[in-house]
Amino acid sequence: MKALPRPIIVVNFKTYPEASGPNSIALSKICESVAEETGVEIAVAPPMTDLAVVAQSVGIPVLSQHVDDVKAGGTTGHVPLESVTACGAKGTLLNHSERRMRIADIENLVCRCRNAGLSTIVCTNDIGVTRACSALEPDFVAIEPPELIGGDISVTTANPAVVKDSVGVARKICSGIGVLCGAGVKNGGDVAKALELGTDGVLLASGVVKAGDPRKVLLDLADGLRC
Ligand code: G3P
């Protein structure tokens, strides 16, 4: 399977009602049309319950929000990677702040995903966790200080040092690794700053999902990536 392109904007729909059920398909199609129109790479991570239908509806990369370190079979209520692959996911977030995982499970899953051709974006909350997770050699790490998630001030403004230092630490440990940042990212200026700090793009949610006009916001974000 093809690796996720860089630079990239990843939109995490979380479980927001504005981006669930039929809304998840509508928002994914807006992301797809902005990607086509601007040439900017945009990936979406819809609610787990909408993964298959979204993957069937759009041509941009569709990611799982999470995978459990279990095998498909007698694992009721879990999310095996075999299932998300069968749904059409091209990659997965792991260890999101809202879905923390044990390091041993992340390690195992990064390896299993690699073997299955599924790209991995491992979320981290500080430099120490960025260091530890980069050593597992996922495709990307995504630095997101939890206290800034869902807020109005972008991590690139509130704490540019954690972004810059994460980029430095991650690339020192694993030279080819992609680095994203997220939390409070809202506009093209935030994206441009993220790139200036050395990242390969952003991981964001509320700035798009809760926007009155998501298409307008996405066009602005895409502009920031093209600067
Ligand atoms: O995964 C994205 C994330 O946690 C950031 O959320 O709403 O601050 O863009 P938000």
Itemize the secondary structure elements and their pairings.
Elements: E1 8-12, H1 22-38, E2 42-45, H2 51-57, E3 63-64, H3 81-87, E4 91-94, H4 103-116, E5 119-124, H5 127-134, E6 140-143, H6 155-158, H7 160-173, E7 178-182, H8 188-196, E8 201-204, H9 206-209, H10 214-226
Parallel strand pairs: 1-2, 1-8, 3-4, 4-5, 5-6, 6-7, 7-8
Helix pairs in contact: 1-10, 5-7, 8-10
Q: Outline of this structure?
A:
This protein has 227 residues and is an alpha/beta fold.
The CATH architecture: Alpha-Beta Barrel
Fraction of residues in β-strands: 5-15%
Average pLDDT level: 97
The proportion of residues forming helix, as a percent range, comes to 40-55%
CATH fold group: TIM Barrel
Structural class: alpha/beta
- Number of extended strands: 8
Helix-strand string = EHEHEHEHEHEHHEHEHH
Residue stretches low in confidence (pLDDT < 50, at least 5 long) are none
Biggest sheet features: 8 strands, parallel
| Beginning-to-end CA distance, first to last residue | 29 Å
Coarse morphology: globular
The structural domain count equals 1
Q: Bound compounds, please?
A: SN-glycerol-3-phosphate
Main-sheet strand order equals 2-1-8-7-6-5-4-3
CATH superfamily: Aldolase class I
Rounded Rg: 16 Å
Q: Indicate the CATH class.
A: Alpha Beta
What's the tally of helices?
10
